[in-house]
Design a protein that fits this description.
Layout (H helix, E strand, L loop, with lengths): L4 E8 L5 E5 L11 E7 L5 E10 L12 E7 L5 H13 L4 E6 L2 E6 L9 E2 L5 E6 L4 E3 L3 E8 L5 E8 L2 E9 L5 E9 L3 E5 L3 E8 L1
Parallel strand pairs: 4-5
Antiparallel strand pairs: 1-16, 2-7, 2-9, 3-4, 3-8, 6-7, 10-15, 11-14, 11-16, 12-13, 12-15
Length: about 210
């Protein structure tokens, strides 16, 4: 019924997730140590990665379930700055990330804008900091999502709707009309996250 419909209005800020990794020297890392990081592919799908260090060709790929590996080859004699440079070179070669390095700190920027799970160190000993959160608009309650209305997006943008960690909808919005209205009928079981690769006001229409 119309009387059950509610809405929340948020402003999405145009931003990609930016992560810094302060590396340790090779002698402090065990082959197979890793951290996790998530990006968004150009198709809008989440890409869940683990970045692992292969020290002195010792192998021991940890292969955590559901994640795609990115291998960084290091040596026991590497300084923290050398480890960082090797990490930067590998991440910068990945399509879903870009990277820079300053001494022992690597700055990793997601190629696509939008909300993702934060990077987490598992056992490398690296200090990981999220300096910029990817864009997200959150509706914390369980609900039935009915419509998403987005203000002026310029030429185009990528829209993602996520329930917890499950991607429910991806769409590329372009052209007219402005504002764009996306009709949907999606049950949100955990919490709703809407990410958009543009700066825009978003109205979420839902039914509790």
């Amino acid at each position: 019924m119309i009387s059950n419909l509610k809405y929340t209005r948020k402003t999405a800020v145009d931003s990609a997730e930016i992560t810094t990794v302060l590396c340790l020297a090779g002698s402090a890392i065990t082959t197979g140590d890793y951290f996790t990081i998530t990006a968004i592919a150009s198709t809008g799908e989440l890409v869940n990665n683990y970045v692992w260090f292969d020290k002195d060709s010792g192998g021991e790929d940890p292969a955590p379930s559901g994640l795609t590996g990115i291998e960084v080859d290091i040596a026991n004699t590497d300084t923290n700055a050398q480890v960082a440079t090797k990490l930067k070179n590998v991440m910068d070669a990945e399509a879903n990330y870009g990277a820079t390095v300053a001494t022992a700190t690597v700055t990793i920027t997601n190629a696509q804008k939008g909300c993702v799970s934060d990077a987490v160190d598992v056992n490398t000993g690296s200090t990981i900091t999220i300096t910029t959160q990817g864009t997200q608009v959150v509706c914390d309650n369980k609900c039935l999502l009915k419509r998403i209305i987005i203000s002026d997006i310029g030429t185009s943008c990528l829209l993602r709707v996520v329930d917890g960690t499950t991607v429910l909808l991806t769409a590329t919005l372009a052209g007219t009309p402005i504002p764009r209205s996306i009709e949907c009928d999606i049950k949100i079981a955990t919490s709703l996250e809407v990410s958009i690769s543009a700066t825009a006001d978003i109205i979420i229409v839902y039914e509790e």
